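User: Sequence recovery, please. Input:
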């Protein structure tokens, strides 16, 4: 069980910004930008690389949630970054698929 499963079960508190049947979104506990929200599926998929074509509706929904959350948090005009870290080389530390939605400052490219 990951820390995100424990958040989903209510065992660990989180600052929730959005929830529906499939998705939970909450502020990152260690923000890397003035706004840093994580968007996770309620279904425990470890990595993006574990998804299959049949997961396309869920993946699309996660991106749509990221877009709407960014809009609600006032990031749409100046822009923001959406990141999915995958596996060891991708820097993934929690094995539960999640989108990082970060904004409120400029980001550099390449990300390093
Ligand atoms: P990643 O490195 O892509 O797997 O991202 C995992 C993210 O989860 C990191 O940005 C952590 O700061 C964040 N995180 C870990 N534990 C918690 C928690 N209890 N509440 C909110 N965010 C968390």
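Assistant: Recovered sequence (112 residues):
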């Amino acid at each position: 069980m990951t820390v995100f499963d424990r958040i989903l079960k209510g065992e660990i508190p989180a600052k929730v910004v959005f929830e529906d049947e499939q998705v939970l979104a909450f502020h990152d506990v260690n923000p890397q930008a003035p706004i840093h929200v994580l968007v996770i599926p309620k279904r425990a998929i470890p990595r993006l690389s574990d998804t299959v074509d049949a997961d396309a509706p869920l993946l699309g929904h996660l991106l749509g949630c990221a877009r709407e959350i960014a809009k609600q948090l006032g990031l749409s005009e100046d822009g923001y970054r959406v990141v999915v870290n995958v596996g060891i080389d991708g820097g993934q530390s929690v094995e539960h698929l999640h989108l990082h939605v970060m904004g409120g400052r400029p980001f550099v490219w390449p990300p390093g």
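The CA atoms of residues 57 and 63 lie 10 Å apart.
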